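Notes from hallway chat w/ T.B., transcribed later so I don't forget. T.B. wanted the structure written out for a chain they're using in a teaching module, and asked if we could keep both sequence and structure tokens in one place. Agreed to drop them here.
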Amino acid sequence: MIDVNLSISGMELFLLILVRIASFMTVAPFFSQTGVPQRIKLGLSFFLAVILYEVLPATQLGYNTVIGYATLIVKESIAGLLIGFSAFICTMVVNFAGRLIDMDIGLAMAQQFDPTTRTQSSITGTMYMYFVMMIMMTSDMHIYLINAITESFSLIPIGGIKLTQNLNETVIGFMADYFIIGFRIALPVFSAMLIMNCVLGIMAKVAPQMNMFAVGIQIKLMTGLFIMFVTVRLMPVIAGFISETMQNYVETIMRNMV
């Protein structure tokens, strides 16, 4: 049986812990999806905060006014959001790669509403996203994220977040890697479509009486689907690479907030 006694200072510390965890749950992959009930998110955040409150050493909060405590709340919110965002951007890169593939094979106009993110998503991006998320969940990536947010309290003390220039450079580097990784995932289809466009261009010169625009749409779509079918065995490799990248990003963003 857990006996939790809270004083006024203890309640203030508990709320700061809860704010960081709840902010993380708002944007982190697996937990931020709309398919996860709000009660589960709130309950998990609350119980993690209770456990951490009992485990973490007593901390003296350096503030004197309400504005000072509000500043601490904002700092903890930023810490949780940045840690969750660093993991979230690694999963969205798969959706970006799917959009690139759809643009190449002619499915760019075939958009659908993704209920998990409440945004318009491409067909290939949604399919790749669910494949990668399932593989990462079977490899206990969601457990790693929970461990990451709990370990952040030992690395970044309550109210100890520092927004430095290195943090800004790290976030900008994340965005650059976002496009690089997306192009690497879409590279097989992109290379095949580049060769197919060259072949269609040569055929248009050799047989100008053929309508290459009408013929090329079906050929590019069939070729793109065939390449996707052949390279589907690479999905575990892609998921493993994204998991490793996510771990590096989360650890880097936490080190740069100290």
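Follow-up for T.B.: The chain has a mean pLDDT of 83. Might be a good example for the class.
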